[in-house]
From TrEMBL:
Compartments reported by the entry: Cell membrane
Organism whose genome encodes this protein: Aurantiacibacter flavus
Pfam families cross-referenced by the UniProt entry: MFS_1
Membrane protein topology class: Multi-pass membrane protein
Protein name: MFS transporter
Residues annotated as signal peptide: none
Domain Major facilitator superfamily (MFS) profile intervals: 9-396
């Protein structure tokens, strides 16, 4: 999973473009295409909503799958598997005539999103870039831009083609081609490392073990903070437009607010990546969670332009910073060795955030307002913000340190370092 030299930038580019398409063609575009599907197929919105829920649940519950596939088959074959799942999922969406086929499509797309998405990408980036925060910022910015472009592409396709099935066919072709390209650039034959890189990669296998890391309360506090981000994100995207309409904000203005949030989020991701090289990861997470907290409270009472502007900036910065800051914080606390499994497990546990829209809809039916829903989300964020504020850094067990010391002294690492030294001392004539 370590790529050196110019190849690492090619790999990063491939991962970014693939993540752009995944974000554009799944969560963000589905909400635009669904009205056309509901009208054409004569469905109820209950059926449409179940499919959206299945997409999110499948994405979360498959969180451990990328780690298992990568450890066993490598990154390249994992990307091919994800592309095959995406092809099957988009194919179901394109030919769907019944709810069962639609549900199967959303489930397959949720799994494909996990297999090809941020879990393997974060692992590859953390091992291949010394300035992994900047690289992660670029990666998550590409996803945010996909979130902006996806609804526009879906709407344009419907306007010009007049057939929603064409959109799913195009999404299938784009995803498969990009997953194959990503598999090609991450194939083993491309991954030529020098001796010093092998030594660094071997050293990266030392430090925290998965078992010891996952036993710490700090890990679950970070997971809780990430889940609170997702809770607010899914709830806002599910209900914010209708909430603003309830407050007598026009639909056009409400849609514009959501677009502004997405644009600020895209910029926030790249800023977070650059700032992460200079600011402590914990402070980054606190800024992100604090901004999200302010934004969702403002949205709850967003009856005028000034309050909606505050909500847009707060939520945009919070969402943009969240993915980068959490990923870098996990690396900072526990190191590279268990990162793939820790991130996968976090994605699995954070599926609990999918309950937000379900409970939110029920509260809206009972109270007639979404304000209470957003305030409840704010309370959850405040709890984890306070907990993180007073959280102490976990202490690595002595047994792990001894393991790390012995691992660094292994013959393989010494041999790699020796080869690197000999290469550097080689006479100019030999070169």
């Amino acid at each position: 999973m370590t790529f050196d030299g110019r190849l690492r930038f090619v790999v990063l580019g491939a991962l970014c473009v693939l993540f752009f398409v995944l974000n554009a063609a799944t969560f963000n575009a589905l909400g635009v295409v669904l009205p056309y599907m509901v009208e054409d197929l004569g469905w109820t919105w209950a059926i449409a909503g179940v499919g959206f829920t299945l997409l999110g649940v499948a994405c979360g519950l498959s969180g451990l799958m990328p780690a298992i596939l990568i450890r066993r088959f490598g990154v390249s074959r994992t990307m091919l598997a994800g592309g095959a799942l995406a092809l099957a999922g988009f194919g179901c969406m394109a030919v769907t005539t019944t709810a069962i086929v639609y549900f199967a499509g959303t489930i397959l797309l949720g799994i494909a999103f996990t297999v090809c998405g941020q879990v393997p990408a974060v692992s590859v980036i953390s091992h291949s870039f010394s300035k992994h925060s900047t690289a992660m910022g670029i990666y998550f910015t590409s996803g945010s831009l996909g979130s902006v472009a996806g609804p526009l592409i879906a709407y344009s396709t419907q306007e010009f083609m007049g057939n929603w099935r064409i959109y799913w066919v195009g999404a299938a072709i784009a995803t498969v081609l990009l997953s194959v390209f990503t598999a090609m650039v991450t194939a083993n034959r491309w991954n030529n490392r020098d001796a010093s890189s092998d030594a660094a990669r071997a050293a990266a296998q030392t430090g925290w073990s998965l078992r010891n890391a996952i036993r710490t309360p700090q890990y679950f506090i970070v997971v809780g903070a990430y889940s609170s981000f997702l809770l607010i994100n899914t709830t806002v995207h599910g209900f914010a437009v209708q909430h603003m309409a309830d407050l007598e904000i026009s639909m056009g203005a409400a849609a514009s607010v959501m677009s502004i949030i997405a644009l600020i989020s895209a910029g926030g991701s790249i800023v977070a990546g650059v700032a992460g090289e200079r600011i402590k990861p914990m402070n980054m997470v606190l800024v992100s969670l604090g901004s999200t907290l302010i934004g969702v409270i403002a949205l709850a009472f967003g009856a005028n332009f000034a309050v909606l502007a505050l909500a847009s900036v707060g939520l945009g910065i919070g969402f943009g910073f969240s993915y980068v800051s959490i990923a870098v914080l996990l690396l900072d606390l526990f190191g590279k060795r268990p990162n793939l499994e820790l991130y996968s497990t976090m994605s699995l546990i954070s599926t609990s955030a999918a309950i937000g829209p379900a409970l939110g809809g029920y509260v809206r039916d009972q109270t007639g307002s979404f304000s209470f829903v957003f305030l409840a989300c704010a309370l959850v964020a405040l709890i984890f913000f306070t907990t993180l504020l007073f959280m102490k850094r976990p202490k690595e067990p002595n047994e792990d340190k001894n393991t790390a010391d012995s691992a660094i002294d292994t013959p393989n690492v010494h041999q790699a370092l020796l080869q690197s030294e000999r290469h550097q001392r080689r006479p100019i004539a030999e070169l």
